[in-house]
Amino acid sequence: MKIRAPFEHGSVLLNGSEYHFQDFVAEVPEHIGNFLLSRGDYSIILDTVRPLKDANRILFIRGAGLGDVILCIPIIRYIKEHVNPKAKIDWLCGTGEFIEVLRGFDCVDEFYSDKDLPKDAHARYDCMAALDYAEFKTNESFTHHRIDVFARRIPGLEGVTIPNKKLEYHITEEEKEWYRKNVNIKKPFVTLTMTTTCYNRVRTTDQDKELCVKLIDSGFNVVIIDRLTREGFDDRAIRATDNYTLRQKAVIMSNADCVICPDTGILHLAAAVDVPILAYFGAIDHKLRVTTDKTMAITHPVDCYPCNIYHCNRGNPLCVEGLTSDHIVESLKMHLAKLQGNQ
Known about the structure:
Strand order of the largest sheet: 11-10-9-12-13-14
Number of helices: 12
Mean pLDDT: 82
CATH topology of the largest domain: Rossmann fold
Shape: globular
CATH architecture of the largest domain: 3-Layer(aba) Sandwich
Number of strands: 14
CATH superfamily of the largest domain: Glycogen Phosphorylase B
Order of helices and strands: EEEEHEHHEHEHEHHEHEEHEHEEHH
Low-confidence stretches: 1-10, 21-26, 39-47, 133-137
Distance between the termini: 53 Å
Largest sheet: 6 strands, parallel
Strand content: 15-25%
Radius of gyration: 21 Å
CATH class of the largest domain: Alpha Beta
Structural class: alpha/beta
């Protein structure tokens, strides 16, 4: 059995013996792989009995990170349409909330959360592939789009470039009716997201508060879409934070004039619902992340961008903190005017 570790070096303790995994891929006895799978450490399992193109039943594994889960959609569609159209494809995608986000994606037969994966999965599937992100030391991470980096970790897709990177999301008629009856925000309105997992992709809280005020003073209604409650922001802003589901947030974004956000999961959710996006980037080159021509990417010009590191060597990430609120508001107006002119 082959396993692929989520990091460049990993290990597991089994029956008093420590097994080390290096260089992402290693051969291990089947009982070790089965032990890891039964214990729930699915992210390091890569068990291929048949080649991808010949498999009858495939399990894809990606359950960490909203944006990364959404970015796997074009990969699975590519496999279904160009590599193995006859295969039954299931997806282990972490939480139940992620399953809800993927609802309607017709290339997948069944979705599983971490808790309900069948214990006999190693016998049920003749091809299992983990779409976990490559270690950041991997050079391709800084030269290829993130979707292609994911895809190339799958045996049978080495060296592939996914031609169609369009993301997908399916809003139901019931959700549209929920928005009309319960939300129905007056236009023009934008959504504002500030949280991400890496500090050198975001501006300071004080800068975000200032931006919120300037957007409202410029005539935009502002809906704060975030994981956090975000106290201390202008009371005129509407909050769609921790008391809203991801699907409700997606419906709100789909009606917005523009989504404003850093390089985070909401960026890809907004791209999936096909709404204009104004995204500010720090550390990572935006060309390796953006998937839609409705996205305008901005960054403050500094000689170290893109640095491709997650801990700013200069202390404060000037590539994003250097972006003034006035610049963001003006960029928003330019972006919307350009999109309006293209219609």
